[in-house]
Design goal:
Blueprint: H1 26-40, E1 45-49, H2 56-67, E2 73-77, H3 83-93, H4 103-119, E3 125-129, H5 136-146, E4 149-150, E5 153-154, E6 157-162, H6 167-171, H7 176-179, E7 184-187, H8 193-206, H9 218-228, H10 232-245, E8 268-270, E9 279-281, E10 286-291, E11 294-300, E12 306-309, E13 316-317, E14 328-330
Parallel strand pairs: 1-6, 1-7, 2-3, 3-6, 12-13
Antiparallel strand pairs: 4-5, 8-9, 10-11, 12-14
């Protein structure tokens, strides 16, 4: 269907870049409040988790825009970055374009900036996206930044973001400087059925459609919610696809695709009889590391990736010259709890 047939003057369901309009809903407000709490807490360091297409980037972007009036904010995608690239990215986000020759110079400049901002009463905020995919050398630097104090108080506020549970990262033995600062753990929640309808209509109206209910009737909004699981990014993609498939208004339930729905990062299982809330967290599997029949270590594992190597910042550190200092990535399948 042509956009003009719906009254739209521009595409409301963008898959890249900034959304056409920022739509608030309960899950978004809770995540934004979490970021506010991280900034306000004297030891503020928190974990923000939500599956792919759950709206993390949109929430972070909007929060950064509003919070920059109060403090310097750096948002960095840590996936694939080495230490130098990470430090350069953070400094650039904080407004520094100076070139330095060594990691020590970069780190020194960043520390000075963090301390100066904190002394002035504006402790900066660092948001690292895809924390599950960072290099162990980057984790070492983040631990060093987490230790910076001004007047016996922690300086840098930090939010670690991922599309999967990442408690296992800060619980690693080498991550003690982060774990002792951990103040909160937020899992993004999806749109409810009513919020899905409001979300769709808000974007349609902002795109120029005066009567969005004539394009997406109530039953189609409900179908979109069920097909997407309420995750905003999936709602956008399914709505865009439905408009492309329909030849006239209104869109019908037959035009709605039903892909695999992303799973919440808050893993739950049915509760036993007598549990009040009806659900309870699943116990994380335990990996037992042995050598010659002797138990060396037990690792509670709630992620999808395990780092193995000689560096102490790996999940499994093996002190042997036969083991590389670089991490090896292993998917854990069928580990018994």
């Amino acid at each position: 269907m042509e956009l003009g047939a719906t009254g739209l003057k521009e595409q409301p369901f963008r898959s890249q870049g900034r959304p056409i309009v920022f739509v608030e809903y309960a899950g978004q407000r809770a995540a934004s409040q979490f970021l506010h709490d991280v900034c306000a807490h004297r030891t503020g360091l928190g974990l923000l988790q939500g599956p792919a297409l759950s709206g993390k980037s949109t929430i972070i972007r909007q929060f950064a825009i509003t919070e920059k009036a109060n403090r310097a904010v750096a948002v960095v995608n840590g996936s694939g970055l080495n230490t130098t690239a990470m430090l350069e990215s953070v400094l650039r986000e904080f407004g520094y374009e100076h070139k330095f020759d060594t990691v020590n110079e970069l780190l020194g400049m960043l520390k000075v900036f963090i301390q100066q901002q904190t002394v002035s009463g504006r402790p900066p905020l660092l948001i690292i996206q895809n924390i599950h995919a960072v290099n162990p050398s980057v984790l070492r630097v983040l631990c060093e930044l987490a230790e910076i104090r001004v007047r016996d108080a922690f300086a840098l506020r930090m939010a670690l973001v991922s599309d999967r549970p990442v408690n296992y990262i800060v619980k690693a033995s080498a991550m003690g400087s982060m774990f002792k600062r951990l103040t909160s753990d937020c899992h993004i929640e999806p749109l409810t059925m009513n919020e899905t309808c409001d979300y769709l209509y808000a974007k349609m109206r902002h795109g120029g459609c005066l009567d969005p209910d004539k394009v997406f009737p109530g039953d189609v909004c409900d179908e979109l919610h069920d097909a997407s699981g309420g995750w905003p990014g999936v709602v956008d993609r399914l709505a865009l696809l439905a408009l492309a498939k329909a030849d006239r208004c209104p869109v019908t339930p037959d035009h709605i695709a039903h892909p695999a729905i992303p799973k919440s990062t808050r893993v739950l299982e049915p509760a036993h009889d007598g549990d009040v809330l009806g659900t309870k967290p699943v116990k994380a599997p335990t990996l037992r590391l042995t050598y010659n029949g002797q138990l060396l270590k037990e690792i509670e594992f709630d992620g999808t990736r395990l780092l193995i190597g000689r560096s102490e910042h790996n999940d499994i550190c093996i002190e042997s010259d036969l083991v590389s200092t670089c991490p090896e990535y292993r998917e854990i399948v069928g580990v018994a709890a």
